[in-house]
Design goal:
Layout: H1 5-19, H2 54-57, E1 84-101, E2 108-113, E3 116-127, E4 130-147, E5 156-157, E6 159-173, E7 181-200, E8 203-223, E9 228-239, E10 245-260
Antiparallel strand pairs: 1-2, 1-3, 1-10, 2-4, 3-4, 4-5, 4-6, 6-7, 7-8, 8-9, 9-10
Length: about 260
């Protein structure tokens, strides 16, 4: 089975490019020099004005302990948090384990697939670092091979596809790690309408049904100055099984483009 992590690794340099411009990763600026005011009542002609002063008796390597000369402590100030966000997800999808059950004999055949595509539109409402929302997802991929068939030593080339249309509600947590970089987590639950079709030789099997769907996702995001965000996401999707098709478990690597308002 092809690994989904290859396209996922291709997305990682995207955040690396933006992370180098994070102001939190640059050394803080030096404090501005302070100027001294002359005391109008001080007798600068007095020979004892600077004689015996400890300032000139200290070695040149002595450190300055006066707090007025110290650099300001580094302080993280997060960007102003917006309350709403629209997002669009686009990525690759691949089943982890997916099979076809022969209802007559009870045998289970293994299905192999090409990479599929996942698209999702999402609305979320922020409550500080937490958020809730709804989304509409579409996922589709093609069936490629059928194996573990009695009487056939190798894999059989098949045709067909799987399509999923889902509506989900979700909760998530997206805390700021630096001023620009934030963590992406989300858990979703909803209903999915499925279309499963497979053609083996001259026989075609097709099922249409509605089942519960759930998902979990984890990733890292970058926040731009113009309310746009870009995230690299790994997502796990699962569904309750059906009589003919079982073990609905998928993973995918995708990009999330968001707009906060």
């Amino acid at each position: 089975m092809k690994s989904i992590f290859l396209p996922f690794l291709l997305f990682l340099p995207v955040l690396g490019v933006f992370a180098q411009y994070d102001p939190n990763l640059i050394e803080p600026k030096q404090a501005t020099d302070r100027r001294f005011n002359y005391d109008q009542f001080y007798d600068y002609s007095s020979p004892s004005g600077f004689e015996g002063s400890t300032l000139f008796t200290q070695p040149v390597t002595a450190s300055i302990t006066n707090s007025s000369y110290a650099l300001p402590a580094a302080r993280f100030v997060p960007s102003q948090q917006k309350k709403n966000a629209f997002s669009f997800y686009l990525g690759f999808s691949q089943p982890i384990d997916y099979g076809l059950n022969h209802l007559g004999s009870g045998n289970r055949f293994e299905l192999d697939h090409d990479y599929g595509v996942l698209m999702e539109f999402e609305y979320r409402r922020y409550f500080k670092d937490f958020h809730i929302g709804i989304s509409n997802m579409y996922q589709s991929y093609k069936h490629h091979q059928l194996s573990n068939v009695p009487g056939y030593p190798g894999a059989i080339e098949v045709d067909g596809y799987n399509g999923v249309f889902a509506v989900m509600a979700h909760v998530g947590w997206s805390p700021q790690m630096t001023e620009k970089i934030f963590l992406e987590t989300r858990f979703s639950l909803g209903l999915a309408y499925n279309i499963d079709e497979i053609t083996v030789f001259y026989s075609q099997f097709k099922d249409e049904y509605t089942e519960m769907i759930y998902s979990a996702q984890l990733g890292l995001g970058y926040r731009f100055d113009n309310s746009m965000t870009l995230s690299v996401i790994w997502k796990l999707l699962g569904q309750s099984t059906k009589d003919r098709f079982d073990n609905f478990l998928f993973h995918c690597a995708c990009l999330r483009l968001g707009y906060d308002f």
